[in-house]
Amino acid sequence: MSTSAPRLTALDALHRSLGATMTDFAGWDMPLRYASERDEHNAVRTKAGLFDLSHMGEITVTGPQAVELLDHALVGNISTVGVGRARYTMICQEDGGILDDLIVYRLGDTEYMVVANASNAQIVLDALTGRAAGFDAEVRDDRDAYALIAVQGPESPGILKSLTDADLDGLKYYAGLPGTVAGVPALIARTGYTGEDGFELFLKPEHAEGVWKALTEAGAPVGLIPCGLSCRDTLRLEAGMPLYGHELTTSLTPFDAGLGRVVKFEKTTNEGRFVGREALEKAAARAETAPPRKLVGLIAEGRRVPRAGMAVVSGGEVIGEITSGAPSPTLGKPIAMAYVDAAHAAPGTQGVGVDIRGTHEPYEVVALPFYKRQK
Where do the H-state alpha helices sit in 207-263? Predict the structure, then answer.
């Protein structure tokens, strides 16, 4: 284990000046919270929140065969992504296990940006570099080239509109367009990890502080506040969004995770071949006939909070495992995601509990997500 000092984002001094509680996350010093996690969470649900996500890993893929490389390396059909659009996808091992979940942005005819999770950025970079052999394409580590700021919540379009001349009304979910924000160039993407409308702004690190301050000022009248990683986790959990290392791991295929829809067998490039295809075809067939376990939502009847790794039980038998758990500010009760045996996965299944330090606490099985915004 390396003991190198954690990496700092371009906004590090600003977070500290705001009194943020900092934490080491995937080798980065990141703000966990500024004041109250609950207030930050509720601000995003009802008004707006501002996040520093500069720890995410940006990898640029360019060249005449960039799309062939991505179709070979990833499970999605990247050739159908239009310029200015983005797609959620995954990169898998040869055995079908998930290496990471990703967003791929198509920036130009032969230019793509792959955004990986902070904890997997090096793994994804190495995999893409290795899989690029034989393709006329270049894989470039652009982690230091970008800062990433997200503004999320129902007030975010109005806040951002006051700082950009980009056509935000015409910007669909999972689309990204170049523009200026507070006078500096940025890639403006309508993406996020909170279950709310919002935007992610990719910009040069030296511009991050100015843009953060401009957003803070523009958002103050409508209740925007800075938000840390802690509320980002409760927001994504309520929205039923998977987190790598919890709902997604190398021991699971996308089909095991209930996300088989991201795997596209009908690609036109590379004669339809891609890394992990054979294993994933078998996983797809298994999921049709006898899915081993299913990802479900659990809502507590009591107050005790379930944590990742705790056993889900029924009738004295272990029937599953918690992958993520937290108090839900929106529901007012503890919630969790868990993989449970298919026989106990139907919403409303009775008699399911979580073993919390030897006590079987009762839980209700529900369909995901726990929370869906009204559009």
Answer: 208-219, 229-238
Coil, helix or strand for 198?
Answer: strand
Half-sphere exposure of residue 241, counting CA atoms within 13 Å on the CB side? 16
pLDDT digits (tens, 9 = 90+) for 114-124: 999 999 999 99
Give mean pLDDT, residues 1-21.
90
- CA–CA separation, 242 and 369 (whole Å): 10
Identify the CA nearest to 258 among candidates 64, 50, 90, 46.
90
Residue length of the chain: 375
CB neighbour list of residue 151: distance below 8 Å, 6 or more residues apart: 48, 49, 50, 51, 159, 160, 198, 199, 201, 215, 219, 224
User: Residue type for 214, please?
Assistant: A
pTM, two decimals, is 0.96
pLDDT tens-digit profile of 178-213? Answer: 999 999 999 999 999 999 999 999 999 999 999 999
* DSSP string computed for 124-171: HHHHHHHHTTTSS-EEEE-TTT-EEEEEESTTHHHHHHTTB-S-STT-
Based on its alpha-carbon atoms, the radius of gyration of the chain, rounded to whole angstroms, reads 21
The CA distance from 323 to 325, in Å, is 7
Beta bridge partners of 311: 321
Reported in sequence order, the residue ranges of 215-348 that DSSP labels E, i.e. its strands, are 225-226, 293-300, 311-314, 317-328, 333-341
Distance CA 280, CA 215 (A): 43
For 321-338, how does the pLDDT look when each residue is reduced to its tens digit (9 = 90+)?
Answer: 999 999 999 999 999 999
